[in-house]
Amino acid sequence: MKQDLLTFADWSSQELEALLELALKVKASPADYQQTLSGKSLVALFEKPSLRTRVSFDIGINKLGGHMVYLDSQAGKLSGREDTLDMGANLACWADAIIARVYSHKTLEDLASAAKVPVVNALCDLYHPCQALADYVSLHEHFGSVAGLPLSYIGDGNNVSHSLMLVGAILGADVRIITPPGYEPDAAMVEKARERAAQSGGSITISNDLAAAAGCKALYTDTWLSMGDTTPLEQIKAVFMPYQLNMSLLRQTGASVVMHCQPAHRDLEITSELVDSDYSLLFLQAENRMHAQNAILISLLGQ
Predict the structure, then answer these.
(1) Which of 119, 232, 286, 298 is positioned for an S-S bond with 302, CB 3.0–4.6 A?
(2) Is residue 265 among the annotated active site residues?
(3) From the candidates 128, 140, 162, 196, which is the catalytic residue?
(4) 238 CB neighbour count, 10 Å cutoff
């Protein structure tokens, strides 16, 4: 029976820990996995443009011996041309898996329901599971363990914060989400994360107060202005600038690393001083996107 990866929300801690360990094995010994996807073709359907997601999947699949077909639904004039259900069913006639970076989670659900092959969420409005796995691979690599690790996500309560919170809850981390008032993560996501944290020994904190980040080992942020958002920048800055990741905040909290899923808007949500500093894990996160995604594909498709 095929398995999709639309979100990690219902994965067990054992499954997720095994996936994290597999990502680290793939990174350490890539030659051991170079034929894992031999003879397999994967379609990457992108409604939203990307640098890291596209390149890391394309090169990663090649390193596993597979082949990726990239479909840009906008430039290729696929958007609105046919029903998502029909697209999923047709792609499954040829491809061994579908990787989709889309605007709506409903699109992923439709693809998964129609396709007889695994569907992987490469980003949607609710989740970014591949990014979250890469983030925890990076934290595990840097700190040696994720369980009990205190980290703060500071900024907009968006898809990145949802997956960071859910995966952290399952792995037993101490995840604190700090946002401006009115920008908190989805309440249902918070409830789910707290349920999973209760099982793992982790904890979830939601706050509007930067003081909640005190004692955290890692500070994480994301863009304040999501792709396609037309809110004037000055209006965004008025709300979010007090939540900027900068050297002063790093020293106040006692954190030793900063993180960002990128693309980063330098000197808005995070200062260039931090991006380019020894505190930065940004490019380790980017590197680990490929290894985390390869672990996912091996898990779903490998023999």
Answers:
(1) 298
(2) no
(3) 128
(4) 11
Q: Can 101 be counted among the known catalytic residues?
A: yes
Measured distance CA(47)–CA(15) in Å, rounded: 29
Active site residue 251: no
Known catalytic residue: 32? no
Known catalytic residue: 52? no
Radius of gyration of the chain (CA): 19
pTM, full prediction: 0.96
Catalytic member of 52, 131, 174, 293: 131
pLDDT digits (tens, 9 = 90+) for 232-277: 989 999 999 999 999 999 999 999 999 999 999 999 999 999 999 9
Q: What digits encode the pLDDT tens for the residues 111-149?
A: 999 999 999 999 999 999 999 999 999 999 999 999 999
- Rounded Cα distance between 109 and 120, Å, is 10
> Annotated catalytic residue: which of 140, 162, 289, 291?
289
Going across the sheet that includes 150-154, the strands are: 203-207, 174-178, 150-154, 218-221, 257-260
Active site residue 261: yes
Beta strands in 20-130 (DSSP E): 41-46, 67-72, 97-101, 119-123
